[in-house]
Design brief:
binds magnesium ion, four-stranded antiparallel sheet, 261 residues, globular, binds adenosine-5'-diphosphate, alpha/beta
């Protein structure tokens, strides 16, 4: 038996905007170290779920737990301090800082809130070493001193992942990390995500079914504000309710795709 509480747990989570119910009783339990892909039609509420988990929005009712502790209603920085980091659909890096400086900012920021200022100064050396290590992890060694603004789009997204994990969070939320990338960029990027999140819990919203089935231990299917299925990729593929609600055409597409390679 695994005694550890789930990394992320949603209990009957609900969110309304005005009179419109957007999240309508979502349940989910993600084990530590699990990689979960969240799929579902546009407007199903996937980004809203991430906003509720990361503290950007407070739920109308229900609970969000991080490692067994309630986090619903807490501000984002507090949830981040508890070990959850999120990257946004919009790139959030400093354009006029280099790759290395961006990563060092990410590391220092996390040290800054964990330690007193003197302790913080004594940690600068560690922060530099950690930032250096991150440059390598995201595959940008040759671009170490290039300003973020001068990177390619895919490189900027890689840097963003680096900044997201720089603070040492063990639960990572990525909202459509491969949006706007070519097929080959996507494939490369998914490998990167896999490498930098080893041992961490990962929730990622992803549209490309080939990517989803390759990356995820489990798939959560969100339709109309509910998690209608949460299972292994094989089981989700075979789930009739999912096929009817959403997946039929998407699975057919990804299988046709695989056949093409
Ligand atoms: N702040 C908001 N105010 C009002 N409606 C919102 C807000 N955020 C999202 N919505 C609505 O909630 C629904 C779900 O949106 P979203 O979570 O972005 O879906 P997804 O990420 O699955 O495409 C959409 O109909 C969207 O218009
Ligand atoms: Mg979205």
């Amino acid at each position: 038996m695994n005694a550890a509480p789930p990394a992320i747990e949603l209990r009957d989570l609900r969110k309304s905007f005005g009179r419109t119910d957007i999240i309508r009783g979502a349940h989910l339990s993600v084990a530590p170290g699990e990689r979960v892909a969240i799929i579902g039609p546009n407007g199903a509420g996937k980004s809203t779920l991430f906003n509720l988990i990361s503290g950007r929005l407070a739920p109308s009712s229900g609970e969000v737990l991080l490692h067994g502790q309630r986090i619903d209603g807490k501000p984002p920085y507090e949830i981040n301090r508890m070990g959850l980091a999120r990257s946004f659909q919009i790139t959030n890096i400093f354009p006029k800082l280099s790759v290395f400086e961006n990563l060092r900012c990410g590391v220092l920021w996390s040290l800054g809130y964990r330690y007193s200022f003197l302790r913080f100064l004594s940690r600068l050396h560690d922060a530099n070493a950690r930032a250096e290590q991150l440059v390598g992890m995201i595959g940008l060694k040759s671009k170490r001193d290039v300003l973020a603004v001068n990177l390619t789009y895919a490189e900027q997204r890689a840097l963003e992942i680096g900044v997201t994990i720089a603070g040492g969070a063990d639960v990572i939320l990525l909202d459509e990390p491969t949006a706007g990338m070519s097929r080959s960029e996507t494939r490369h990027f998914i490998n990167l995500i896999r490498e930098v999140t080893v041992g961490k819990t990962l929730l990622t919203v992803e549209h490309d079914m080939g990517v989803v089935f390759g990356l995820a231990d489990k798939i959560a299917v969100v339709v109309y504000g509910e998690v209608i299925a949460f299972d292994t990729p094989e089981a989700v593929r075979a789930n009739r309710r999912v096929q009817e609600a959403y997946l039929g055409s998407a699975v057919a597409d990804s299988q046709a795709d695989e056949g093409g390679h």
